[in-house]
């Protein structure tokens, strides 16, 4: 076999991706800037903060060369706020706490005031490129978050949280409380994932989408096999029903002039 | 010099800037995630892979230079700059970790492409072969009268290697060569093990008698997980027949994460606009 892994990235690969998230560190020693294949690394000058990929921050942390500044969401207060949001809306199905907005996504509050301008980067091929997780500064420590903005769980919250708890628990505010809250969040959210299974039925029809907005990367990774298995199984069962629906949809979309051809199609099907 | 280089020189004054390295790294990562998540083979990103491989080669050289300088007899013998050595070791380990991470991405990407290729080899061969395989078919029909057909005959010939670099080829030249060799071996093996005892008209590997094609294509209706990056992109229900029009269904808002059929979003990939979606 050329490649043994199944389709769709597996949990270890999701952790690998999460290690590309940028975090803030407080270096303890100087290090000149480096040109890495993943992009340039700024020089480390001890009193100044630096923003590095998580894998590099963990490497420096394990060698006691730096301290990691925990992201603002990984704080007991923020986590218990998010947990409140999650449990308040627990009865309404599938209501995960909202994810952090994308750079080109207007947030609900400032929709009319200051719409952040999307800054598309351009690829060398001349196409527009919008960065997304893990290349967004969702885990960088900020001194003062936007006022009135509720803390939000980033896409790779579970992986980043677990890795920071494991390697840099002495840098976190209250590691035991944080660990407990993360575990509670995980349980609340995974029970939501399980209770939301019913909506998968609708995804078996072409053109429909099942929204998973707010679900973290690892949670998707856990549910991937089940979700795609259920949807594909339902699709096979409902293939003939979908064909009929398609024709009905096409009939509705088409104007009266298409009526005659539509009848012809139906006649063709009757012969089968 | 191909079109990618020209565009790169127009868009960015210097393609070797650290910013373009970071951007290419993000593109490679996103392409890897998408390739891992999607059931069919995505078009080969020739420009991106060329740039990445060139950078990997240069990075290996610079790491070797650094390693050689660290074992320089003068610096170790005198030990005068011993405070510099730990930094150098740290630098080396950082550079090597970074290199391994990129190499892992490239290796995983290529291996997954190979596994897709070998799973649906006949489908992709027919896809890349020039012309709708009518000319080899006719040749074979003529041969049928004289001698027994071989399963190898159903393998379409390779397209000319000097193909236009402007067109986005689905496969890299190396993958094409692998694909052809793989399918030839497979056909020979089938022929020698059981197909030679079949009636001559049942020996073709791309047999489509009875309205059922023997060539298995990847399932495009399988679901993928996507994040919408631009507002108002609609999910497409592609037309089943040539006569019908595509139906545009649910529109997604920016930032939405959803489970959707691959065929519903693959058009956003086709026209070079694949960055509308972050498939994973």
State the gist of this model:
The complex is a heterodimer of chains A (272) and B (280). Chain A is mainly alpha-helical and 272 residues long.
* Quaternary structure classification: heterodimer
Unreliable runs of chain B, pLDDT <50, ≥5 residues? 1-13, 76-82, 132-146, 162-167
Summarize the biggest pleated sheet of chain B: 3 strands, antiparallel
Strand count of chain A: 8
Q: DSSP strand (E) fraction of chain A? A: 5-15%
Widest sheet of chain A: strand order?
A: 4-1-5
Give the strand tally of chain B: 5
- The count of helical stretches of chain A stands at 9
Distance between the termini of chain A: 41 Å
Average pLDDT of chain B, to the nearest integer?
Answer: 71
Describe the global form of chain B. flat
How much of the sequence lies in strands of chain B comes to: 5-15%
Q: In angstroms, what is the radius of gyration of chain B?
A: 25 Å
* Biggest sheet layout of chain A: 3 strands, antiparallel
Description:
Chain B: It comes from Aspergillus campestris (strain IBT 28561). Chain B: One of its GO terms (biological process) is DNA-templated DNA replication. Chain B: It is found in: Nucleus. The complex is a heterodimer of chains A (272) and B (280). Chain A is mainly alpha-helical and 272 residues long. Chain A has two domains: 185 residues, no CATH class; 34 residues. Chain A is 42% helix and 10% strand. In chain A, the strands form three sheets. A three-stranded antiparallel beta sheet of chain A has the order 4-1-5, covered by helices on one side. In chain A, strands 2-3 form a two-stranded antiparallel sheet. In chain A, a hairpin with a 5-residue loop joins strand 6 and strand 7. In chain A, helix 4 runs antiparallel to helix 5. Chain B has 280 residues and is mainly alpha-helical. Chain B has three domains: 112 residues, no CATH class; 91 residues, no CATH class; 57 residues, Ribosomal Protein L9, domain 1 (3-Layer(aba) Sandwich), CATH 3.40.5. In chain B, 52% of the residues lie in helices and 9% in strands. Chain B has ten helices and five strands, in the order H-H-H-H-H-H-H-H-E-E-E-E-H-H-E. Chain B is flat and about 75 Å long. Strand 8 of chain A pairs antiparallel with strand 4 of chain B.
């Amino acid at each position: 076999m050329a490649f043994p892994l199944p389709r769709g990235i597996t949990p270890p690969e999701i952790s690998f991706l999460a290690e590309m998230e940028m975090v803030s560190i407080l270096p303890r020693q100087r290090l000149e800037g480096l040109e890495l294949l993943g992009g340039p690394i700024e020089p480390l000058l001890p009193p100044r903060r630096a923003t590095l990929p998580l894998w590099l921050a963990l490497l420096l942390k394990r060698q006691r060369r730096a301290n990691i500044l925990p992201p603002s969401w990984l704080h007991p207060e923020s986590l218990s706020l998010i947990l409140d949001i999650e449990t308040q809306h627990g009865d309404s199905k599938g209501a995960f706490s909202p994810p952090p907005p994308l750079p080109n996504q207007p947030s609900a509050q400032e929709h009319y005031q200051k719409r952040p301008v999307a800054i598309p980067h351009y690829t060398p091929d001349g196409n527009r490129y919008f960065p997304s997780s893990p290349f967004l500064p969702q885990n960088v420590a900020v001194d003062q978050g936007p006022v009135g903005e509720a803390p939000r769980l980033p896409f790779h919250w579970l992986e980043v949280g677990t890795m920071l708890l494991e390697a840099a628990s002495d840098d976190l505010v209250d590691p035991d409380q944080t660990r407990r809250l993360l575990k509670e969040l995980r349980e609340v959210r995974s029970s939501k994932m399980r209770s939301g299974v019913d909506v998968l039925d609708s995804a078996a029809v072409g053109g429909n989408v099942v929204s998973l907005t707010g679900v973290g990367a690892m949670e998707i990774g856990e549910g991937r096999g089940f979700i795609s298995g259920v949807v594909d199984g339902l699709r096979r069962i409902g293939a003939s029903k979908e064909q009929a629906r398609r024709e009905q949809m096409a009939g509705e979309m088409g104007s009266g002039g298409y009526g005659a051809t539509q009848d012809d199609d139906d006649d063709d099907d009757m012969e089968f | 010099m191909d079109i990618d280089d020209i565009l790169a020189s127009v868009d960015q004054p210097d393609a070797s800037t650290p910013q373009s390295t970071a951007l290419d790294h993000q593109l490679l990562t996103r392409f890897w995630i998408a390739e891992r998540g999607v059931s069919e083979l995505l078009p080969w990103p020739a420009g991106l892979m060329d740039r990445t491989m060139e950078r990997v080669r240069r990075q290996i050289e610079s790491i070797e230079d650094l390693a050689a300088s660290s074992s320089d007899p003068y610096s170790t013998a005198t030990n005068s700059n011993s405070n510099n050595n730990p930094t150098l070791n740290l630098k080396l380990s950082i550079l090597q970790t970074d290199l391994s991470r990129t190499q892992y991405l490239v290796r995983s990407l290529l291996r997954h492409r190979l596994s897709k290729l070998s799973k649906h080899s006949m489908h992709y061969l027919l896809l890349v072969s020039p012309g709708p395989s009518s000319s080899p078919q006719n040749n074979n029909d003529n041969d049928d009268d004289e001698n027994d057909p071989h399963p190898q005959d159903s393998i379409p010939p390779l397209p000319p290697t000097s193909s236009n670099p402007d067109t986005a080829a689905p496969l890299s030249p190396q993958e094409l060569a692998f694909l052809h060799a793989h399918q030839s071996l497979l056909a020979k093996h089938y022929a020698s093990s059981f197909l030679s005892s079949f009636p001559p008209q049942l020996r073709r590997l791309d047999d489509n008698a009875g309205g059922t094609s023997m060539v298995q294509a990847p399932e495009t209706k399988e679901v993928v997980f996507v994040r919408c990056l631009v507002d108002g992109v609609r999910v497409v229900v592609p037309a089943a027949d040539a006569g019908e029009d595509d139906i545009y269904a649910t529109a997604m808002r920016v930032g939405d994460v959803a489970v959707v059929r691959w065929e519903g979003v693959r058009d956003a990939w086709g026209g070079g606009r694949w960055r509308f979606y972050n498939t994973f």
